Amino acid sequence: MKTTIHKATERGHANHGWLNAHHSFSFGQWYDPKKVHFGALRVLNDDIIAPGMGFGTHPHDNMEIVTIPMEGELKHRDSTGREEVIHEGEVQIMSAGSGIQHSEFNPNKDQHTNLLQIWVIPEKRNIEPRYDQKIFAQEGRQNQWQTVVSPSDENALWINQQATFAISELEAGKAVDYHLTKPEHGIYLFVMEGEISMGKDLTLGKRDAVGIEASEQVQITATQNSKVLLIEIPMLELH
């Protein structure tokens, strides 16, 4: 098993006033040649958006974009005519495909919004743009993995890539295993809240992450009440 540790304190950081963002991978003005991608996982941004503020209309193409609100709400509007509000407990996916324009705003006037926005390089290029979102019952992730994004699980949101997103909320002392759908894939674990351990030598705290390669399964143990995002991803090489 090969591991690559990404500590929360070593992420890129940009504070624009209305947006306080941390970048796990190179993004915008922040570039780290060792943190450009993990396989097909290209972006993982931890964004805090001020009340009433947001991203104006802007274009995307040929990228799978997953948004996971952790606090507050996000209002989405796109060029297909779709207009939705995404709440904590929901997950959104947008396949930018051949091209789409969208805007995202915090609709609340007295509360910030904290979300993860994750970009995955697609399996097929120039597909018709599509959008979906879904609420997932919290009990479905208690001390187990709840699949929220998958190319094949009908209970999850569909993604144009052989990638799986799963979330677990673990009580302190509880452990959970994950078996890869394809042995050649990698796993990126991101600790949303709490603290977890892997074996005797690796402990990850809030917003820490680890990339894992050459292992067909992983086991994590919560050393305190924790919430963890797991992304199983094809190990593409970017050129």
From TrEMBL:
Domain Quercetin 2,3-dioxygenase C-terminal cupin: residue ranges: 148-233
Pfam family, one: Pirin_C_2
InterPro entries xrefs: Pirin, Pirin_N_dom, Quercetinase_C, RmlC-like_jellyroll, RmlC_Cupin_sf
Occurrences of domain Pirin N-terminal (ranges): 11-120
Top-level taxon in the UniProt lineage: Bacteria
Family the entry assigns: Belongs to the pirin family.
PANTHER family, A to Z: QUERCETIN 2,3-DIOXYGENASE (PTHR43212)
Protein name as annotated: Pirin family protein
Phylogenetic lineage: Bacteria, Pseudomonadati, Bacteroidota, Cytophagia, Cytophagales
